Description:
Blueprint: E1 3-4, E2 11-12, E3 27-28, H1 43-49, E4 63-67, E5 76-80, E6 83-87, E7 95-98, H2 99-104, E8 117-120, E9 126-129, E10 133-136, E11 147-148, E12 154-160, E13 168-174, E14 177-183, E15 189-190, E16 195-197, E17 200-206, E18 214-219, E19 225-230, E20 238-244, E21 249-255, E22 263-269, E23 272-278, E24 286-292, E25 297-300, E26 306-309, E27 314-318, E28 326-329, E29 335-337, E30 345-348, E31 358-361, E32 369-372, E33 379-380, H3 384-389, H4 391-401, H5 427-443
Parallel strand pairs: 1-3, 7-33, 11-15
Antiparallel strand pairs: 1-2, 4-5, 5-6, 6-7, 8-9, 9-10, 12-13, 13-14, 14-16, 17-18, 18-19, 19-20, 21-22, 22-23, 23-24, 25-26, 26-27, 27-28, 29-30, 30-31, 31-32
Amino acid sequence: MAREVPGTSRPRGTEREVKLRDVIPSRWQRLHSGPRPSISWLAPFAVALAVSAAHANGAFPDELSVHFPASAPHRILLGSNFGLLVSEDDGASWRYACEPYVTSGSTSSLSPANVSFYQITADGAILEDSVDLRRSVDVACTWPASSGSVAGSVVSDVFADPTDPGFVLAILAAINGSSIVASRDGGTTFGAPLYTTSDLVTSVESARSARGVVYATKVGIRGGATLLRSADWGTTWNTMATLAGAGTQPSILAIDPADANTVYLRLLAGANDSIAITTDGGQTVQVALTVSGAFTSFLRATDGALYAGQLEGNLYVRPAGATSFARRSGPRLRCLGQRLGTSRIFACGDMFQDGFSLGYSDDGGQTFLPMMSFSQILGLLTCAPVQSACAAHWERIQGVLGIAPDAGQPRPAAPGGSHCATVGGEPSVLLVLLALCHHFRRKS
């Protein structure tokens, strides 16, 4: 599964996201922001409390995560930094709900907050975390806020159980520590803390193959990263392996969907990023891969192969049964995903350099073909709330992406085969401006 990798989108490797949950999702899809410095004791809390302010509201459209609801075999959801894209026909056509409406019900053309990540419950409800934790049961048409312990709190992570549609876990971050809370009604309401600590809990996830098994990672008040495990839905916890020393930020990429004792972990330490694996329920952990820079995507595929990607176009693959990763060239990966039980691999790429916003591979990641670019979006979701609230946003996105306002179809590309659509005016100048905006957004 794939999961968003922390960052703009955060990778995870089980049914989640970046970050591949219903897709065999992964939490990794949240890794998106690139390398981060080693964390100090206070820094993680500052980051958690300021997460919504860290995004650029006017950033060029980009991808965060891809999801495949188990209850809708032809539906694909693509989380982006301007809204949630929906396809009901296996990626042939796309419409969206704008981010200002998703996060706050706003009718503005710019969002006052940005979605940190999306999650899909086992019965297809959509969860989003931004200023509030919100939930949609009508395919992104309405987004009421969750209530209970999450109301007014900083939610730093959410995980929807892959088999129980009612069970959702969340991490609440505060200046004096963090806690894990749970919902028993699919994310509508959350109860009192199951676990409270003065340390920083960085991720939480429940297993597909063993009901009630939950793992979490945390950073200690004096440094050091630790893995936690519960066998009773988070009611009691055991401290397992020490993952790393001071200066390392741990997170769960995925719990293996076939084996609850196998957990894939991310260990981010300064300029390096690592994937570590435990196969004995957290008793011991071994580092399987270390790279310079940051991972931006992760997938544990249906066949047992592991995939991890970077924005630089590096794709690391460990085939099923192998013990080491091999590097190959790939898209400039923002996310990886796969519908549970299928073989096709989906990837979020760079629309300019890869030629697609969402692509796919049918040969185990050897090659990727385009499925969709943002310039091909048909328009807003057809439900009345989105049509009304997102009109100004859609007008702005049409201008940014060069989508014809009358037909909702992409304008012809400028001569020379560029993947950038024109916005009106002199094409070569506008293309240069779009490329510069994209370049500086990537630098920030």
